[in-house]
Design goal:
Shape: rod-shaped
Largest sheet: 4 strands, antiparallel
Distance between the termini: 124 Å
Number of strands: 30
Structural class: mainly beta
Strand content: 35-45%
Number of helices: 2
Helix content: under 10%
Length: 403
């Protein structure tokens, strides 16, 4: 029996077994601290097994072999982390700036190449709408001389000159008045250039010859007829479409400035109907063959026509009718209302529509393909290397044709 006195009330406290350092008084309910000699002994500390070495002997410290293993494992982990950081660093973009200023890495996918247009590659395009250098207003004309200089006209009577790479060089103006016409108010209907650097402009019923460097008027093809269109021959002659009254005429003017022949109603007689002569366009190839087109898409106003009127009419160099091909329609080899015609160095014939289509034929009229131009078309021409230049929508593009 364990007994001691309550320090609060003085009562005798007896316990058969005391299991903690405090007990409760049965008389005053106070918590009483048990005298030290009557407290139960503290529990023994938990038993631990001694550290043993790989030989099974007790040990209180790391053995040399264990230290070597720890060092090797730690070194391997450090090496893997360093290689990982190096790999990530090589993928990061290089930057200039303070050390540690590294942006987050964002993977970039290579942009897919632009699709190549069918039939040609665009060498360059220049121009926009306006009145400054390399800017154009309304209807345009384009010509390329023997040295590759590019001449571009618009409705302001300006002719802008560009080098063979499309870089602007200078501008000159077509005279508003000469001895062959007076009070010119608008730009030319067509622009042409020869291998000598002379420029020819169809305007005011004449073909005006100009110095390509200065714009000085050098002469004109003219007469009692009103010239609506023209094309230059390789020997220096000119084929013109003139209007005599209400009729269409095809006239060859030789390099001696004299008319070699006239073919009266050269297209209207084939169609057996009156034509809008101002809508007739002509082109020639290197052999002198002539190709005429009723290009209603190149003139203003509303005109009546049949699809057969829009065909290409081919004539021999002496003006004799040969054949016709093409025509209005939506089948391969047909076209909508055309606006212009040109012939390349291989005698292939190109017929354009005002928006962006160019239909290509062989010299005998066999349909080859239809090209989609990069912009609208007012005029076309070729250089000595058989590259095609298209002008329209205030732009000029050089197209390198597929062979």
């Amino acid at each position: 029996m364990n007994a001691f006195t309550c320090p609060q009330c003085g009562a005798a406290l007896e316990f058969e077994r005391i299991e903690s350092s405090t007990v409760k008084c049965h008389y005053c309910d106070s918590m009483v601290i048990v005298p030290a000699e009557l407290r139960p002994p503290p529990p023994p500390p938990p038993r631990t097994e001694p550290l043993t070495s790989y030989r099974g002997e007790p040990s209180n410290k790391f053995t040399p072999a264990l230290i070597v293993v720890v060092i090797l494992v730690g070194g391997f982990v450090i090496l893997i982390a360093a290689l990982s950081r190096s790999s990530n660093t090589n993928r990061l973009p290089k930057i200039n700036g303070p050390v540690g200023a590294r942006p987050a890495y964002t993977p970039r996918l290579a942009a897919p190449p632009a699709p190549k247009p069918d039939g040609y590659t665009i060498a360059f395009t220049f121009g926009s709408e306006g009145t400054g250098p390399s800017f154009f207003k309304d209807e345009m004309g384009v010509a390329v001389d023997g040295s590759g200089l590019i001449y571009v006209s618009d409705e302001t009577r300006r002719v802008q000159v560009f080098d063979a790479s499309g870089h602007y060089l200078n501008t000159w103006n077509i005279p508003t008045q000469t001895k062959w016409y007076a009070k010119l108010k608008e730009g030319p209907r067509k622009l042409m250039a020869n291998s000598s650097g002379d420029v020819f402009a169809v305007l005011a019923g004449v073909v005006l010859k100009l110095d390509g460097a200065t714009g000085e008027a050098l002469g004109a093809a003219h007469g009692s007829d009103y010239i609506q269109d023209a094309a230059l021959l390789a020997d220096g002659g000119i084929v013109v479409v003139s209007q005599k009254g209400q009729d269409d005429e095809l006239v060859l003017i030789g390099n001696d400035k004299r008319a070699a022949y006239r073919t009266h109603r050269f297209v209207s007689s084939l169609l057996d109907k009156q034509l809008e002569v101002d809508a007739m366009r002509v082109a020639v190839d290197g052999t002198g063959d002539i190709y005429a087109l009723y290009a209603l898409g190149g003139v203003n106003g509303e005109h009546w026509y049949d699809d057969g009127d829009l065909a290409v009419f081919k004539f021999a160099p002496e003006g004799k009718y040969v054949t016709r091909f093409g025509g209005g329609g939506h089948e391969p080899g047909q076209f909508g209302v055309p606006s212009g015609i040109a012939v390349d160095n291989l005698s292939r014939v190109y017929v354009c529509e005002p928006f962006d289509k160019i239909h290509v034929y062989t010299a005998d009229g066999r349909y080859l393909q239809t090209l989609k131009a990069p912009h609208g078309i007012n005029a076309m021409t070729f250089d000595a290397q058989n590259n095609l230049y298209v002008a329209g929508s205030h732009k000029v593009s050089k197209l390198v044709l597929d062979k």
